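User: Can you write out an input/output pair for a complex, sequences first and structure second?

Assistant: Here is one pair. Inputs:
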Amino acid sequence: MRAQAMAPHIAERPVELLAEEEAKGELARLAIAIAHHDELYHAKDAPEISDADYDRLRQRNAAIEARFPELIRADSPSRRVGAAPAAGFSKVTHRVPMLSLENAFEEQDVRDFFATVRNFFRRPEDLARVAEDAIEIMAEPKIDGLSAALRYEDGRLVLGATRGDGVTGEDITANIRTLETVPERLAGHGWPDMIEIRGEVYMERAAFLAFNAERAAAGEQVFANPRNFAAGSLRQLDPSVTAKRPLKFFAYGWGETSAGFARSQAEALARFRDWGLSVNPHSRLCHGIAEVIAYHRDLAETRASLPYDIDGVVYKINDLDLQNRLGMRSRAPRWALAHKFAAEQAQTVMRDIMITVGRQGTLTPTAMLEPVTVGGVVVQRATLHNEDEIQRKDARIGDTVIVQRAGDVIPQIVGVVLERRPPGAEPYKFPEKCPVCDSLAVREPGMAARRCTGGLICAAQAVERLKHFVSRDNFDIEGLGEKHIGAFWQDGLIRQPGDIFRLKADVIAEREGWGEVSASKLIAAIDERRRISLDRFINALGIP
DNA sequence: AAGATGACAGCCCAAGTCAG
DNA sequence: CTGACTTGGGCTGTCATCTT
């Protein structure tokens, strides 16, 4: 069958004009056509029609279904969410996970790091290599951007990906290709047949400011800071937009490779440079702890004169043999450390403390702040974590507090400016009852959190559990997303767990065209469609 | 063997950005 | 407007290892 024959825009009647009979027939044809293209696209990787044409098919199907809900087929394409081609970016699995780094804020943390390494290599033949005054450390500025992985095969760039959760990222190849500092072909020689080079995509401050100045002149909204701007730029669907944004790339590491190409981090960086990649010029090979700390101090001083933002220094054990033996932890390698600079701080007034109730009933206090700019963004909330944390800081409503962005990202309350405490401010009294259901909120011995004892009597807990369940399992029933559940609660539609269950049952029953449904039938249907075990489902919802 | 300590995984937090 | 994705710190509960 020829592709054109499947295209719907030949003899396509406006949906409003369709008679029921015609609609029924067309839905049947669309179901077959879409399934056909899904198969070609996914199984055979040989699509017959363009993505745009395919989208048109699905849109038409959806439009007809919207007008004739009673005609929705059991095998409707709109139900097979998994079969749809990725609307935006396709996923990329990192064969070697992209981990983050362990952080150090104080010199002592750095010393602890080296102590751990020394402790790891206790064998006499290793000891000399990791001696405090001799251990080789590659120290590099930690660029404040976002990490990316570039896959080169036979020296040609074939894939660019974001880090994602470290295991699965997004395919941003088209956008990556627009970076001038990312070569399409590796130069020189000696590169492995396949190598995945990792580094940081960033934007220089001057370029960012110039870009914003132009936007401001044009009356457009300006961006908040270079890092988020860079992140947004890489997620553009249209690479020509990315191309206009002055992004740059520094290579600092690698993932999967077909062959070894260096024996040390320093050597690897030198290779990258030979191959035409951009490597940060301020990196330095240090010997011993004293040298790395001196390097950190130097860089903290020259930080402001660099053309881009950095938030610290990365130390890597230079010898790859030692690196391999140290290995990885779940979140970070054992052979590297990020030594951060002190975060930028600001003062503002804490207007109130808001208590939220989590899915386990945990009462979490959040500070509501007078908006203040810290490190390029406007901060108005910050977590206070728990009861003890408030007490430790003796934070009172009305207090002026010092705010910083942990890791230059997450707002955090560092402390209180006692001199500016308003007269009459009283120590904060943590509620002993759940603000939602009024049940007793208690602390188990040894626990930091105070918890609402209402269980599923508590609407907040019930709602949060359902939200968690819905988002975690992509239990995507139209009209029952995470936000909808919150809204139902606000509207008073959910007041107790039974309500949630009924609501869920109603929504599903309506879509499935069932009439009255029993709990078991509902659960069985969900079980079948989503491969969620009955136990898990009941647990997650807390249905008795 | 029991208790204490440490490491670790998993989750949540807040803000900016883009896609749909 | 909602959802997904980026950034990193820190709490929580569990499990492994160390100490008494």
